[in-house]
Design a protein that fits this description.
alpha/beta; six-stranded antiparallel beta barrel; globular
Length: 358
C-alpha cells in the first residue's frame, strides 16, 4: 500500500515540483493550499503574488490537475491570525522585530496542517523548502542544509519539533533552483517560470508600520524621542514600530554623520541612536530555545550561529544560562543582533537548534 503524503502547495515552482517528485517516487500525493488571507481586501491585494493569495490557489489547482492528484483548499485563517499576525503585531509593539515566517512554519504550515493531514490518514506532509531532513545516530531528527547555499531555508525551520520532522518530507532540498525549474519545465508544469515571492505574504507592500497601525488601532505607540546612549535628546521619531536595530535609512534626522538604531525602549518610547560600532556585539542571549539535533545543551559547545536569515554565520561558544536561556559568545563580533529575531545554531550541515534573541 502506497504511503500517503499531503503536499502544501503555494502555487510556486518549488512546492509544485515537490508534489511531482513525490508522485514519481511512488507516494499517494494529495495537494493542499492553505487559505490564510483574512478578508476580501487582502485576498484582492494578494491576487498578484505571494505564497498564499488567490493566484496561489489558481496555480496550485492547475498543477494538481496536470499531475492528476487530488487537490483541496483548507481554511487556516484562524490559526494564521492567532499564531502569525497577532504575534507579529505584538512583537513590534514590544519594540522587537519578529520573523513571522518562522512562526508560520512551526504553528501553521506544520502544527495545523500536520494535525489535519494525519487525521485524514496521511503518513507525511511535504513542502517545497530548500532543506533536508536526516535521522541522526542519536535517534533524533534534524534539518540539514540544502545542496544550494543560495536558496538554503534551514534558518526558518529551526523551530520544528521532533514529531513534526518525523512526519515531513522535503524533496526539493536535494536540488539547485535551476534544476527545479528544469524539472518543472520538462514535466510540463504551468508554473515552471513563475517568479519567487519576496515579501511577507500578509504585508505585500512591505509597509510594516502601516499594517501594524491598522491592526493595533489605539494601542499603536505615538511619536517619541531619539536619544543617544547617555540619554541626550536628539530629535523626535514617528513611533517605535517604525524602527529596528541596525537601521540607518528612513530615520529622518540630520546628524551630519551616519547614525544607526542601536536599541528600542518600549517602556519609555525612546529609540537610541549611535555609531556603526555600537551596533556590533560579541554576545547574544536567547530564550524560547528549541533543540533539534541534540536533546539539550549540557556543557559549552562551539557552533556556527546565524542571527538573521541572510547572515552567513559566525563561530561562537554556547553556554547554558538560567531559565533555559542560552548565551552565545561569538569569536568575532556580529552586527545588529535584533531582539525578536532568531539565532540558529549549526554543527556541520545540521541544525542543532535555536532560540529567540533577547
Amino acid at each position: 500500500m502506497k504511503q500517503k503524503v499531503v503536499v502544501g502547495m503555494s502555487g510556486g515552482v518549488d512546492s509544485s515540483v515537490a508534489a511531482y517528485l513525490l508522485k514519481e517516487q511512488g507516494y499517494d500525493v494529495i495537494g493542499v493550499t492553505m487559505q490564510i488571507w483574512q478578508d476580501e481586501e487582502e485576498e484582492a491585494r494578494s491576487a498578484s503574488g505571494g505564497c498564499c493569495g488567490l493566484s496561489a490557489v489558481d496555480d496550485a489547482r492547475r498543477v494538481a490537475e496536470h499531475l492528476k492528484i487530488p487537490y483541496y483548499v483548507m481554511n487556516f485563517k484562524e490559526e494564521f491570525k492567532r499564531n502569525v499576525i497577532d504575534y507579529f503585531v505584538e512583537e513590534y509593539l514590544r519594540g522587537r522585530t519578529p520573523n513571522p515566517c518562522i512562526a508560520c512554519n512551526r504553528y501553521v504550515k506544520w502544527e495545523s496542517l500536520l494535525k489535519r493531514s494525519l487525521a485524514i490518514g496521511a503518513d507525511y506532509i511535504a513542502t517545497g523548502h530548500y532543506a533536508r531532513i536526516d535521522r541522526l545516530e542519536n535517534g533524533r531528527y534534524a534539518i540539514r542544509n540544502s545542496v544550494t547555499a543560495a536558496k538554503d531555508q534551514t534558518y526558518a525551520l529551526y523551530n520544528l519539533t521532533q514529531e513534526q520532522l518525523s512526519h515531513t518530507l522535503m524533496p526539493v532540498g536535494e536540488y539547485h533552483k535551476e534544476e527545479i525549474r528544469k524539472i518543472a519545465q520538462e514535466a510540463g508544469l504551468p508554473v515552471a517560470f513563475k517568479p519567487d515571492s519576496q515579501e511577507i505574504c500578509f504585508v505585500p507592500d512591505n509597509d510594516y508600520a502601516a499594517f501594524i497601525d491598522r491592526e493595533a488601532g489605539e494601542r499603536v505607540p505615538g511619536p517619541g524621542n531619539f536619544v543617544d546612549r547617555d540619554g541626550n535628546v536628539l530629535g523626535r521619531h514617528k513611533g517605535i514600530t517604525h524602527y529596528t536595530v541596525g537601521q540607518r535609512k528612513g530615520l529622518e534626522i540630520a546628524m551630519g554623520r551616519r547614525i544607526f538604531v542601536t536599541e528600542i525602549r518600549p517602556d519609555t518610547g525612546e529609540v537610541i541612536l549611535g555609531e556603526n560600532e555600537d551596533v556590533f556585539t560579541d554576545t547574544v542571549l536567547c530564550d524560547r530555545v528549541n533543540y533539534m539535533a541534540m536533546p539539550e545543551l549540557t556543557e559549552p559547545l562551539r557552533v556556527l550561529a546565524k542571527i538573521r536569515y541572510n547572515h552567513g554565520g559566525e563561530y561562537g561558544v554556547l553556554e547554558k544560562q538560567s531559565g533555559g536561556r542560552i548565551l552565545c559568545r561569538f569569536e568575532r563580533k556580529v552586527r545588529a543582533s535584533t531582539p525578536g529575531q532568531a539565532i540558529v545554531f549549526y554543527q556541520g550541515e545540521h541544525v542543532l537548534g535555536g532560540g529567540t534573541i533577547l
